User: What shape does this take?
Amino acid sequence: MLKILKVCFSKKLVHIEINNKNLPMLEALAISGCRGLSSVAGLCSLESLKLLNIKDCPNMQFPLQPLPQQLRQCIISNCPQLHEWAEWQQSLIDGEDKLQEFDKESYDQETLDALSDDTDDDFEIFNEDEDDNFYDEMLDMAGLLASGIIKWTANKLSSLLSPPIGSSSTDEQSASFRDLRELQRTLARTQRSLNALDERNIRGEAERLRLWELQQFAYDAQDAVDEYRYQLLRRRIDDQNNQGQSRRSRKRKLKGDKKEPEPPPIKIPVPDDLAARVRELLKKFNEITKEWDDLRLSEFDAPIREEDYDIKISTTSHIGDFNIVGREEDKENIVRILLSPGAAQRHMSVLPVVGMGGLGKTTLAQMVYNNERVSKYFKLKGWVDVSEDHFDIKAIARKILMSFTGKTCDIEDVENLQNMIMAQVEDVKFFLVLDNVWNVEKKNWEALLSFMECARLGMILVTTRNEAVSKMIGTMKSYDLNLLPFEESWQLFKQIAFVFIDQNMHEQFEGFGRKIVGKCGGLPLAIKAIGSSLRGETNEETWKDVSDSDQWELPPTEKDPVLPALKLSYDRMPAQLKRCFVLLSLLPKGYYFWKEDMMNFWMCLGLLKQYSSCRHENIGRLYFDDLIQRAMVQRAESDEKLECFVTHDLIHDLAIFVSQGDLLRINTQYFQEAPKKFRYLSVVVNSSDHRNVDLNSLTIPRGVRILKFVNAQDNQRCSSKLFSSSINIYIPADTWPNLIQLRALDFSHTAVTQLPNSIGDLKLLRYLSLFQARITTIPESISDLHYLRVLDARTDSLREIPQGIKKLVNLQHLNLDLWSPLCMPCGIGALRKLQTLPRFSIGGGSWHSNVAELHHLVNIHGELCITGLRKIRNVDDAQTANLVSKKHLQILRLDWSDGVCINNCSHSSSQNDVATPELEEEIFESLRPNKNIEELEVVNYNGYKYPSWFGASSFMNLGKIILCQQSCKFLPPLGELPQLRMLSIIYMTAVEHVRQEFRGSVTTKAFPALEELEFEEILKWIEWSHVFQDDFPSIRLLKIKDSNELRYLPERLSSSLTKFVIKDCSKLASLPAIPNLTTLVLKSKINEQLLNDLHFPHLRSLKLLLSRSIEHILLDNQNHPLLEVLVISVCPRLHSIMGLSTLGSLKILKINRCPYLQLSFDKPLPPQLRRLTITKCPLLADWLEIQSSRHQYQLHEPEDGWCEEQQALAELNDASEDEQREEFGLLSEDENGEDNDEQDHEQSEDEELQYGSDGSTDEDE
Assistant: This one.
């Protein structure tokens, strides 16, 4: 009874035998990606066969026999050996009735999907995703990308030249198709011949010129084919729009209904202009190869073969993270120098660390920068990656200020920059790392130092390769970093290369490995690179080839500066990975970038090989992780804790070396020196003096494929908001026609405010980034960009999405800002290939999007935030959205409001936004997500109850829930969720009691995995009860904030709870029994009785903050026998602390901003106290002086105690806004309760009295 048979991606399959006796009901046969398959016997006997689809089977051959009579559709794609067979079959039906269309109505959508090629394209004549299949490598490095393009174009032509049998044919069209086939065969031979060439045989200028001409020929051929395919795309979209006019009158389908059948494949002739271009290309090819025998045409040329790339990525948690070997002693030496008494005697010191590239200077500087003793000694630290040939004092000053403050800086005036830096360093000890300084003029260096001359002590660590720079700027003897000794080099190599090899093979390859390490010369980067390229290699011949390679004997020169080890590592990359790596040369040295951005570039340029049904994004991640594993890309230290990446300078040199020819990266100040010919362009702005980019000054040739503007100013963290200086872009009107072959256009971090209508002329564009640009609207002409796959519009200035976006049928990633006041048109639902859609805004009226449009967007991955749910008027629309089908969604946000920023939309709507609570309940019930959801956030929900599915145990992966601004009277039953780890309930207006309903119907342990629970602004909350003994077995953190009506908590909470934060719960008189509570934070309005009745035997840290009512604190060692850390901050009415001297375990005491606090002079400090910090407590000045003179011997800490202290204080931090403002002294007098006469107290506003060893001298203190 088998009706459908699909065979795909089998490398070993050579022959298939089928017959009607065994498969009498077979109606559809699809064979795809079987590159070894040569024959299918019995095909003509299948009497029920209606659909035959054969693709990517280059060796397939059929005998010249008629096809089954019932066959309605035959599609042959990328099968060059079947061309003659297809023409013969075509001749049999010329003049007769054409083959009928395959009746897709008789099959459900799931079956049709199974018959597809596991690609996202709707077209049967060709497959858009094939442009990701770049394969064979051209040995000449300059032709690397062009070589892949030849393969792409040949394959695509093969697809175009195998139209469905039954299409019309004329003599003229037959001639056009013959020319196209000739071009396809020509490209195949060109590719094969280029692969056979040895770069050493192409030494003459004439040969190199011909090779360059071949590369340009390949680009032009691909452009011709791409433009024809664009016409097919546009024709198909127009046909669909025409058909859609009649569909709109039909009733909307509900979830579970069959999808409408796709229209039949397009059959249009070869356009005259394409035919003419093909003839011109063939003529051009013959001229190029007239004297090149290797490229003569041959009737027996084999088809282009595909190179296998078996990606092997380790499953370690941090790919590419290597243990640092051999630099511990260097780190200790530098730390000792920085903290030496001699250094402390100088006002400003500069310590240069000098060494050749790849020695690990940056790694060593990071080790020093993060050292505990250094962090303790210097109150202010900063890190600046200079990485520029030009020492731009203005740009570096901005980077220093941003690193010191952690805030953006858009100041252009040097004097203002100087004043702000001086304000930061005045009277403090600071440590600054200037990494990778190439050159600097003495006057600029002295000017920069003058910005920091008011510091109490300044220490600047500079890493450089240039000894002349070291001698000019250093005030201390330079620290020369040496090569690694052999044994340490061997240890580093072993931990990388032999990590996945068993002991026997380890011993087998050790001789080769030691030989390779010896040739690396003790250079860590070289060892990492070559070791990574051999990771997991089990072929002895490969080890021998690497160890005996002639490249080891070729020293770097001015023209060829790349280290042999890096070249060998590059040579061992698969061709696909090489092409991805080469594009890194478009970024400047030291530039931080995101993985996703680079992956999208690769995808849109067709550099990712398709593996069966694997998503391009997953393939891109594999490629990227492979580059990390090969030490070609490394993780960067990001101040915002984002996962950013960077290439080492020497790796960057390698990328530039292998990309010579078609790729150009140019700084704005050097436009006049630009070459005349290039295909990939990045324009770099790294100086504020060249922020206005006028492309009038740069001649851009026709045929450019990438135009990327790189804002390298302040790029230390790759986070959008830290790019303080935008760049202004001007593209003259007469330049746009030269950009019509663009595949990628990147305006990220620029001041672009609008796009011209001519953006629609870039018909081959796949990638458009407006990330953090200043654009407010996108022109409607963007609807002509049918190839577009990535539209990155993450900018908070964007107000509206163009209505024509629905025509971008290939769009896969539509990145939108979550916080922008965004207006979204109807038609988004037509973009069925969408995989990224973080924001979906519902509006009222016919112009705006409707939630029902989400029905077909089943491939959305990652995050989805739906705003404007209150505008839904029909529950059927919410049901049609079919969120339960979005199985790839991980994060779902449901917002009944219009989002954070309200948009004053110009598209009027007569609908009233006021929905009843009952309607909202029905809508919420219909928005059930898929069981795979991991995070769920609900905002501004006004229903009285939660949906029946909310909290169901079937949501096995749901780990985080946020409920914000709700009107329900009872909390949802969440106790049954098996993996819920974080729960935040914020601003509930009607909840008075939290009881059994919160647990749900669970009979055993409720909330089995919950680790963090937060209640905030539960305005009418009085009581929390019905917490049983086994509930919350995993909870670590509980926060209850701004609930001033709360009176009762459960008598007992879980023994796993270790941290409890309470804020503004003035009516709460007692706390539950918590057996193992170690950290307690009490903030703002707290009942004094609660504080004085505390009894937690295991409590180690206690913090009282922002309390304006507490006047007396009573502490007792009997109630707090293990209390080690006590912090009391911003308590303006506090007068006394009793029992302080009895706390036998107290080690850290910190009191801040308690203006009326007095302590008894005759009560000694606790004997174990190691650190005492008193800040802005004027009445404690005399007491502190007496205590310090009396007990100075005990105010010390062991060498390793600083880290422990910082961890203890960090544990007390609640990370809330008020606490951060308190930490930096930003609270107003009204907020912290201080009286206006406090300024008259003796102690100044900025004075801090602190005792306890921090590594400084007595004089410094």
Remarks:
- Residues 143-159+182-190+209-234+271-288 form one domain.
